[in-house]
Design a protein that fits this description.
Elements lengths: L28 H11 L4 E3 L5 E3 L1 E2 L2 E2 L2 E2 L2 E2 L9 H5 L3 E2 L2 E5 L19
Length: 114
């Protein structure tokens, strides 16, 4: 029997040095605009798939500091981070379909049903 994805993850502060932040996160155009307005340009770039993604500096997302995300409780906190690993995209009924092994609390053989 598969283990269900937990309802709460220990994301902030993270006991795993925020390893999920190693790749940055995909941003919507509105999120990128809000980040530009607050922090100025240069915090994200286009990735190899032409998606907007936060930059990675020193092995973590540019917003990672002191063991966590500096945006965690801010309005600019990306939906991709808020919804991981429960929901994907704008559809609140669609389970997260991508790799969840980036979080040591999870494995890809977990039950993703709700």
């Amino acid at each position: 029997m598969k283990k269900r994805i937990p309802l709460v993850l220990p994301c902030y502060p993270c006991p795993h040095d925020s390893v999920c932040c190693s790749w940055g996160v995909e941003l919507t155009a509105d999120e990128a605009k809000a980040i530009d307005a607050r922090f100025g340009p240069g915090k994200y770039a286009l990735d190899e798939y032409k998606d907007l993604r936060t930059k990675v500096e020193n092995g973590r997302c540019t917003f990672h500091a002191n063991g966590g995300c500096t945006l965690h409780d801010q309005p600019e906190y990306p939906q991709g981070c808020k919804r991981f690993p429960w929901r994907d995209g704008d559809d609140d009924t669609k389970p997260y379909q991508y790799d969840i092994d980036i979080c040591p609390e999870l494995t890809n053989d977990m039950d993703r049903s709700f």
